[in-house]
């Protein structure tokens, strides 16, 4: 098996078609996400891997230049044909190519995060490839909570935690109003307050993300208000058959606006004919001090199920890799991830 690799020049539709056919959860491999990174002045490359002129894999890479070191990041990828996803030789050739690209960029390592089911078979595959588990917490929705949308609204409500259902109805009685907005500034104002209150580093690029996905009809900003005051907001992104609760923000209030906001987002996803509502990442059950415990309880209250994907792995290409790995491991421990 000898691979041919080419820099991709295919259309957005063709690129996403392969992603959705082989790894439909792989949001960060979407063409639009790459365009978001380009808007943020991040170096992006798209690669196609072919065997006898048949495409069997794709990879969208970004070059991350951080204080802890430069690395080539393949978030939610590479995406490999389902029939070949456990082929050791194929993966070795893909990794060999990515390692060479990382070296060209003077990167310290290449980080991959394909959304493969976290099974023993997948873990054995990666153990045999010579890559090592990334010294970071389960980010990029490796451990995520999703809700099937094939049931009637009444059934979805009935399957929610009793408290969640009560707070949704209470917000309706209190007169909370949820509306779509095109003013990303509304969200950012609440988001910055949330970040300060919960002591986390705000995500960069939300404004660019919203601009890129809105242009494609793949984003919606929902804002929940009471008596004219904005209490909560959420950025919902659409990719394939899923709606993704990608960013949320709120202020401290006795009014349960966030619950009604999520219920509106779920109903909108159903109206669009989507199959899944993706609440995004949650805390692992065995991590009782994890900083996401509160938001995890909130998300699980709406009903749903867990999706667990294999953890991201690193392929070191520089003797400087241990420096970056040590910094990330210490951060993880200090933040109780």
From TrEMBL:
Domain of life: Bacteria
One biological process term in Gene Ontology: cell wall organization
Listed GO MF terms: aminoacyltransferase activity
Database matches in PROSITE patterns: FEMABX
Keyword line: Acyltransferase, Cell shape, Cell wall biogenesis/degradation, Peptidoglycan synthesis, Transferase
Protein family (similarity comment): Belongs to the FemABX family.
Protein name: FemAB family protein
Organism from which the protein derives: Candidatus Gottesmanbacteria bacterium GW2011_GWA1_43_11
Source organism phylogeny: Bacteria, Candidatus Gottesmaniibacteriota
């Amino acid at each position: 098996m000898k691979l041919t690799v080419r820099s991709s020049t295919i259309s957005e539709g063709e690129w996403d078609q392969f992603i959705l056919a082989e790894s439909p959860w792989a949001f960060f491999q979407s063409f639009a996400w790459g365009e978001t990174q380009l808007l943020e002045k991040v170096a992006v490359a798209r690669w196609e891997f072919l065997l006898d002129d048949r495409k069997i894999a794709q990879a969208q890479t970004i070059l991350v230049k951080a204080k802890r070191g430069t690395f080539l990041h393949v978030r939610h990828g590479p995406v490999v044909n389902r029939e070949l996803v456990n082929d050791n030789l194929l993966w070795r050739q893909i990794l060999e190519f990515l390692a060479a690209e990382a070296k060209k960029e003077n990167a310290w390592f290449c980080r991959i995060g394909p959304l493969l089911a976290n099974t023993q078979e997948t873990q054995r595959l990666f153990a045999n490839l010579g890559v090592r588990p990334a010294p970071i917490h389960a980010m990029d929705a490796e451990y995520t909570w999703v809700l099937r949308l094939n049931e009637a609204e009444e059934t979805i409500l009935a399957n929610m935690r009793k408290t969640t259902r009560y707070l949704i109805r209470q917000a309706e009685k209190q007169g909370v109003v949820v509306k779509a907005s095109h003013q990303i500034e509304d969200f950012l104002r609440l988001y910055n307050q949330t970040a300060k209150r919960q002591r986390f580093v705000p995500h960069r690029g939300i404004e660019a993300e919203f601009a890129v996905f809105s242009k494609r009809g793949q984003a919606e900003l929902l804002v929940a208000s009471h008596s004219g005051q904005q209490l909560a907001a959420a950025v919902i992104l659409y990719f394939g058959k899923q709606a993704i609760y990608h960013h949320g923000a709120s202020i401290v209030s006795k009014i349960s606006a966030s619950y009604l906001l999520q219920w509106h987002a779920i109903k909108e996803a159903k109206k669009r004919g989507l199959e899944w509502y993706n609440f995004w990442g949650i805390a692992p059950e065995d991590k009782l001090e994890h900083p996401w415990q509160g938001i995890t309880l909130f998300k699980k209250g709406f009903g749903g199920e867990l999706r667990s994907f294999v953890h991201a792995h690193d392929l070191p290409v520089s003797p400087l890799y241990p420096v970056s790995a040590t910094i990330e491991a210490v951060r993880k421990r200090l933040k109780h991830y």
